[in-house]
Amino acid sequence: MGLINARAACEAVFPKRPWTVFISSGFAGALVPSRIGDVVIPEQVVCADSSLMGSAFGSSIVCHASYRQQACKTAQLSGNAILSGRLITVENIVWLARDKLAIGRAFQASSLDMESAAIGSMAARHDIPFCVIRSVSDRLEEDLPFDLNLFRRAGTFVQGVWAVATTPGIWSGFKRLRRQKNVASARLAQFFEIFFSMAENNT
């Protein structure tokens, strides 16, 4: 999870073989009204903190038009609603609804994640087509159970464990989040079954 880890993963796998396309897939947070499992197919990706991307980062990374078109057609066939527009990549988990609302307004974006800008930047540097296909796992209007960033930093891990152990009702929030991620995962798997089947038929 995270922009830095995604960049390291791209650098590790890139030399292994020639690549036809880079697809950033996984979960996304909604910055506009949506439903769990809606498919995120943005037109462009922007990093909220451009200093994390280095000199190769531009103002935005444009997603490949033909792959986007195929993804949108797949979403229609599978009955999935689409979040298009702009996706924002952030470095930390955005867990409060008010912060999601502020990011959406500031960047005029429909969704956010923590990896796509790194993957798109690698694709752009090597002139490889790039697109994003993700599934909404948390809605604009809801908070996550608590600040999960505590588990991502060694210095605050114990604080995170203590918060989980001592906060009343936190487990119900985790159960809700698990249900939502299961729905988002299932919808995304169904989507890719159709997406890759269409790609095979077109080759």
Report what the structure shows:
The chain is an alpha/beta fold and 203 residues long. 43% of the residues lie in helices and 17% in strands. It has a single domain, classed as Rossmann fold (3-Layer(aba) Sandwich). The chain has helices at residues 3-13, 65-77, 97-107, 116-125, 157-166, 170-202, and strands spanning 22-30, 39-40, 44-47, 61-62, 82-83, 86-89, 111-113, 130-138. An 8-stranded mixed sheet has the order 4-3-6-7-1-8-2-5, with helices on both faces. Strand 6, helix 3 (97-107) and strand 7 (111-113) form a beta-alpha-beta unit. The longest helix has 33 residues, at 170-202.
Give the SSE map.
Elements: H1 3-13, E1 22-30, E2 39-40, E3 44-47, E4 61-62, H2 65-77, E5 82-83, E6 86-89, H3 97-107, E7 111-113, H4 116-125, E8 130-138, H5 157-166, H6 170-202
Parallel strand pairs: 1-8, 2-5, 3-6, 6-7
Antiparallel strand pairs: 1-7, 2-8, 3-4
Helix pairs in contact: 1-4, 2-6
List keywords for this structure.
single chain, 203 residues, alpha/beta, Rossmann fold, eight-stranded mixed beta sheet, 8 strands, 43% helix, globular
Task: Describe the structure concisely for a colleague.
43% of the residues lie in helices and 17% in strands. It is an alpha/beta fold.
Task: Give me the side-by-side strand order of the main sheet.
Answer: 4-3-6-7-1-8-2-5
- H and E order: HEEEEHEEHEHEHH
* Major sheet summary line: 8 strands, mixed
CATH class, anyone? Alpha Beta
CATH architecture group name? 3-Layer(aba) Sandwich
Distance between the termini: 33 Å
The total strand number stands at 8
CATH topology group: Rossmann fold
Cα-based radius of gyration, to the nearest Å: 17 Å
Total count of helical runs of at least 4 residues: 6
Could you list the spans in which at least 5 consecutive residues all have pLDDT below 50? Answer: none
CATH superfamily: Nucleoside phosphorylase domain
Average per-residue pLDDT, rounded, comes to 91
Task: Give the percentage of residues in beta strands.
Answer: 15-25%
